[in-house]
Amino acid sequence: MRFIKPILRLFTARLNIKSRNVLMIFGICVCLSNVSLYADAAIFSGLKKSLEEKTRTFRMDNGLRVLMMKREDSPTIAVYTKFLVGSADETPEIAGTAHLLEHMLFKGTKNIGTANYEKEKPYLEQIAVWGKRLDSLRIRELEIKSKGEEPSPELKNQIEVLKRRFSVLLELHHKFVISNEDNYIYSRNGGVGFNAYTSNDVTNYQILLPANRLEIWAKLESDRLKNPILREYYTEREVVLEERRMRVENRGMGILREKYMDAAFPEGHPYRMPVIGYEKNLGFLDLEKTETFFKNYYDPQRMVIAVVGSLDFERTEKILRNYFGDLKKGNPQTLKKVAEAGWSGPKFVSVVHPSTPSKIVGFNKPAFPHPDDAVFSVIDTLLAEGESGRLFKKLVLEEQIAQGVYCWNGDPGDRLSNLFSIYITNNQNADQKKVENLVQEELDRLKTELITSEELFKIKNQILGGYLRALDDNGKLADVLSLYQLLYGDWKELLKGYEELDTVTPEDVRRVARKYFVPENRTIAELNPPAKETKGSGN
After folding, report:
1. What positions does the domain Peptidase M16 C-terminal occupy (predicted)?
2. Is 399 left (phi over 0), alpha (psi -120 to 50) or beta?
């Protein structure tokens, strides 16, 4: 049920004029009647039937799954391609590889992004050799320094000479590179929103196109998977390293969240891996290992394509089978399982950084899907949804010791056990202990006081209202449909959440609070700016 906030907003899809009117009637009924969300089973059944009629799926012989949803609002389509690979699939030595690979797959193929691949190829081969050699020398230098010793003049000279030669080689190679050629082709054909993202669980690639340009997309993207060239690898590696500095080292919350995950999960848990990777190893990620990572995880068996918009089912299936049906299966890769016993107990970490003081309070919880997840969604909304959220009212409006409060149910992912996290941005000079105590008071209140049926009904309507008001576009639909098809095997799992939501009772909220919001299940992380030196200190 975690998906209700923020991504599950499916019913806002205008499947057709009739279903749009049904949605309007359904929303009015919910707002005006203090009854079950699904008291009119016929309405929900009609919505579900309409979705199912507009959606088809198929699986190719190589394991690739395709989901198609027809929406006739405009002659456009959204195509989202997801792979079951994220930072959770990495080890500490290759942390950041999934994200770097996402960057690299925009660098082209043997056919795209190059002026002449055959002439470019010798340069790529030499870059791979010299890049590996330079990394080896730099690692040796760091190892010597880590022992408190000074690298020899010979080693320093080797590094400097190879750096200069490598720089010249990269410049010579660059004359073959046609940057962003795929983006140019898409733009010329009316494509917008060509982008990608990597999370702990998945990697996603997306584009919005005129409906009659699907085959251009299929040609480009199948070529990307069949003939990828990780050109400009060493240059892009530095770009990602700088991205990490900006997002983590230079931002207190980035550091705090990383420390929070380390404390909340046991040694070896896949959710300890930050998506961006670690500074110490990003600059040494290996080209060959990145290519191997691609072969292992960009497998059609770990892949879902979602096409949403003005489409013909038969034509779409024919095009996709033609271009993607011959993708080769790889060797199955499994996510590392971690024993969850023996790592309970209250955990605390503190970070000093010249940033806004902040606090994270989190509690370990099971992987999604789980029967209690709908209850966590209710608690999420109860505590932090808008100005009516209990924590927002207490910390921001009444006590005025915080600037904002946000809950994340399913932090940082859903494939494994995860966290219910409360993020608080404090006001300057706020008492961290007071913030912590006020948060705990509200959580304890859930354990002792039943929320009223009226309050619960209002919360359910808030969740459903957000669902109905959500952005109505092909992209949002393709994103969430592909996610559910990939992670849970069937996009229809999406619909079950609302039936689960309707069954949540005040007693469920109290039960879940008592079960999970306990000290042995808690992690607290806090960020404080450096203490100001008093006048005359140091004398």
Report:
1. 287-462
2. alpha
| Confidence (pLDDT) at 464 | 75
- The helix/strand/coil state of 76 is strand
Cα→Cα distances 406→48, 249, 360, 389, Å: 31, 22, 10, 10
Mean pLDDT along residues 109-115: 98
pLDDT at 3 over 60: no
Structurally, what CATH architecture does the domain formed by 347-528 represent? 2-Layer Sandwich (3.30)
Q: For residue 58, what pLDDT is reported?
A: 98
Please, which pLDDT band fits residue 342 given cuts at 50, 70 and 90?
A: low
Residue 411, token pair as written in the block? 């932090």
CB-based contacts of 327: which residues, under 8 Å, 6+ apart?
A: 62, 64, 222, 225, 226, 300, 303
Phi and psi angles of residue 419, each rounded to the nearest 5 degrees, phi first: -130, 150
209 CB-near residues (< 8 Å, 6+ apart): 76, 77, 78, 79, 186, 189, 190, 191, 216, 217
Q: What is the DSSP letter of 58?
A: E
Find, among 149, 253, 133, the residue nearest to 529 by Cα.
Answer: 253
Tell me what pLDDT residue 6 has.
37
Q: Is the pTM of this model over 0.85?
A: yes
Which residues are CB-contacts of 312 (< 8 A; sequence separation ≥ 6)? none
At 447, the amino acid letter reads: K
In the predicted model, is pLDDT for residue 17 greater than 50?
no
Calpha distance 67→308 (Å, rounded): 8
The alpha-helical segments, DSSP class H, found in 266-312 are 279-282, 287-297
